[in-house]
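Field guide to reading this record: the first block holds the primary sequence, the second block holds the structure written as discrete tokens, and the final block holds curator observations. Each block starts with its own label. This record concerns Lipoprotein, catalogued under organism Corallococcus soli.

BLOCK 1 — SEQUENCE
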Amino acid sequence: MGRVTRYGAVGLWLALSACSSSTSAKTEAGEAAVRRFFQALPSGDCAVLGPLLVSGQGLPSCEDTVKDLHEHDLRLVDVVEAKVDGRDPDAVLVRARVSQGGRERREPFVFRVERQAEGWRLRL
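BLOCK 2 — STRUCTURE
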């Protein structure tokens, strides 16, 4: 009986490690998507930025999104935290410090990043 318990504990540990690893990979991907988008934002090039954004009916075009972000001079300062959205395992919530108009906002901004067939995309 002791062996079953010991092996059962090892199996549980392996399962939890795999889950933790999967969560870690998702949060890293979400964080990277936010950083990539903001690194490319100054160019305003929707050929580059478009594939980084969630698109679809009812969502603004890349051009409108970029125009709005440039008008508000929104820039990424640093990522504070990323975690898998508890309502959707294919979405990551990324809390980040941003500046607007050259001044850092007091409260972090929350970005939603979603996994789609083509990869991780930012929803703005």
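BLOCK 3 — OBSERVATIONS
The radius of gyration is 19 Å.
The helical segments are 2-40, 46-49, 62-71.
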